[in-house]
Amino acid sequence: MVIESLHAEEICGFYVDEKMKLVWKTELELLKKFISVCEKYNLKYYMAGGSLLGAIRHSGFIPWDDDIDIDMPRDDYNKLLEIAKYEFTDPIFFQTTYTEQNYVRPHAQIRNSNTTAIVSHEKGLYFNQGIFIDIFPLDSVPTNKIKRYFHSNILKLLSIILKAGIMINPVKNPSRLKCLAHYLVMPIFKLFDYKKLFHLFEDICSRYNNNKNLPIGEISFDYRDKCIWPRECFNDITIKDFMGLKVACPIGYDTILKITFGDYMTPQQEASYHGNIIFDTEISYKEYLEK
After folding, report:
1. Containing domain of residue 59, as a range?
2. The pLDDT of residue 83
3. Which H/E stretch holds residue 42?
4. d(CA 193, CA 4)
5. How many domains does the chain have?
6. What tens digit of pLDDT does each residue of 125-148 get?
């Protein structure tokens, strides 16, 4: 792993402070561990989103990015879930809806439990909130417009129900609308365990995975066209440098990045996806949650 300097500096016209450099360092350590597990078990993965763009354009992080994104075919993703508890040990925590209580996300995160990365709207929630990297499953997407309409909207509805019921603390959330949504969906969870409902969500995500001719995408997280790509983009990999680590990128990265970002080789500074976030590389999230 190469971060040439942990001191603050300007990169591509963007100021990167020392704290973010330390966050990057922590995330690179998580990525290195993840890659070693994938290589051990022969699991396919691909750099994704802003991290794929960073690997191609910067050979590392986009200066204004604050995390690492990874895609995995659903089958490989499920295998990772099965072996994770044996390979990721304290302080590294492999986090999914199934490994946490009162927590739901459509993808996995690998966290460092001795650190802090608390997203502003999740301050009142009690789950592992260490610095993380994201791992998204890839699922097949129907090309038939009617099938895609129903597939996408059923998933969106289930996602709204799950997040409103589990990921909103009405005592600490300042949004009246979100609190109202929380109370409206709570009767559902008196009838159905939320983890069973999430399992249904994943089953629907995987509904078309037996068809190997369909496009694939991060539809459990984002069903928009910019997150759906031709399957052949993932037929092979090309190895790129990412802050000194050798990482797997999809062979069709050019097509993927054009669909997602447009003219991706021209830097366009954007806000981090996660927005306001409390980062601390030295203090555990547990101390922040106790405040």
Report:
1. 9-289
2. 98
3. none
4. 48
5. 1
6. 999 999 999 999 999 999 999 999
